[in-house]
Amino acid sequence: MEIGQYPGSGCSKEHQKIYQEWFALADSGPIHPPALFPLLRSPISPPSQCCSSGCGLIDGAADGDGRITGPDAIKFFGMSKLSRPDLKQVWAIADSRRQGYLGFSEFVAAMQLVSLAQAGNEITQDSLKRDDLSSLNPPVMEGLDALLAKSKHVVKRVDPEIDGFPQEQSPITNKWFSSKSSKKIPLTAVTSVIDGLKKLYIEKLKPLEVTYKFNDFVSPLLTSSDFDAKPMVMLLGQYSTGKTTFIKHLLKTSYPGAHIGPEPTTDRFVVVMSGPDERTIPGNTIAVQADMPFSGLTTFGTAFLSKFECSQMRHPLLEHITFVDTPGVLSGEKQRTQRSYDFTGVTSWFAAKCDLILLLFDPHKLDISDEFKRVIGSLRGHDDKIRVVLNKADQIDTQQLMRVYGALMWSLGKVLNTPEVSRVYIGSFNDKPVNESAVGPLGKELFEREQDDLLSDLKDIPKKACDRRINEFVKRARAAKIHAYIIGHLKKEMPTMMGKAKAQQRLTDNLQDEFLKVQREYHLPAGDFPYVEHFKEVLSGYNFDKFEKVKPKMIQAVDDMLGYDIPELLKNFRNPYE
Length: 578
Prior knowledge:
The chain has 578 residues and is α/β, with parallel strands linked by helices. The chain is built from 23 helices and ten strands. Helix 3 packs antiparallel against helix 4. The longest helix is centred in the C-terminal third of the chain and has 33 residues, at 461-493.
């Protein structure tokens, strides 16, 4: 399967119309008595009270929201009469992203898998790569025709051009973030893992962040678009290492506004994402759009936003991954004096949002400048996302490549302070054929295998996106908790009456020691504490006396969320046949 090819995308228009009717029926609460479905009830949640038609639906399961959740699947897929292990495998492959629901495209993929299973084929991850999927007949679903005929529901037509992929935004969840109401979000409104994270953030984590000004010190408050954003891949490297060419190579076409040359050409941060037509959007415009996850960039000011833009185009790969092209890192004083914004801060902000960070090197540019070292240092805490690419490797022969690889590993060892060896991909990621005269047949084979490995890594990004969101959410919750302890400790150390200015200065000067006190008092890991210098810099603008004391109830709410709510959420939206 190509990167960007979605499961179930190989489907004829005739079959698509059939699946549209099936999908709408499964998602809109069809009238069917439980007797039709002798199969198991879902372990996801207890049955709700029956509706007037006696359909036995489960709360929040079928509501026309464009999502087939576990309860819907058990009822609808039961008509296929496949065994439970087969249906478990069907769901696992169709919901490869582990979102906890099936959109229209995933539903089509599931139906194709059911059809293959009914024909006696073994269901595997490779089943959706078959060439005959477009001619595959829909599966036999016992009793479905009668239900479609009897159903008085208005069947919502799903336009595959619009709804062919899961929707980026759910209007209901957007209201959760904009509403001033203090009412709790009902559990029935949660129909996916991401919705569950939004609910937990608004009810438990956001109050802690606001109380202790986490958004000023660490990261802006999250919005609905931050949760719904597509996975992002950021490319970092010195100028002319092939960052823009790499994106062009993956897309097999140039993106709007791209410029490639041997000189420093990309002078701005460019987000390459899916859009209805080819166009570029200025940074100030994109940063204020509620449906875009870039509102946090406004903290870097107009100087940065004028060097930031969004490039949109229709492309199957961009339906699943967003790329971030960055300016080439220059060296020395030129870099430090000519940037009118915090370059390192911006890369750090993007690093927290991205799912993968590619560091590109050129065989002729292995030196890591001071600025590049600071940029790599700003990726602290995101080591698991970093991949190193030695690009343009076919410009040197095999013996030189061996020496260059050794030199690169030595340079990285001094910058990446981790005991593990970084994964380095070697290749020539452009549209030109490999220069076989320089590298020989063995080198050509090596480059092809390395490229396949990197493409496989990129292919897995959409599948791991939901897991990554959970991972980043948990990291943020722990960071917010430690931040609350630090702020509460500084407030506690302030005198009640006299000498407040001196006490504040003393606490700021000895901030490292104060961190140690907090660490010992609450038994916290040292590696989770923020950078002292950055924290000091932000603290200088605050009056410690106005900070809040530690509120045990708020801390306990976050602890409960980490220890109980998130595991329960994952349990509720696991494979319904487990």
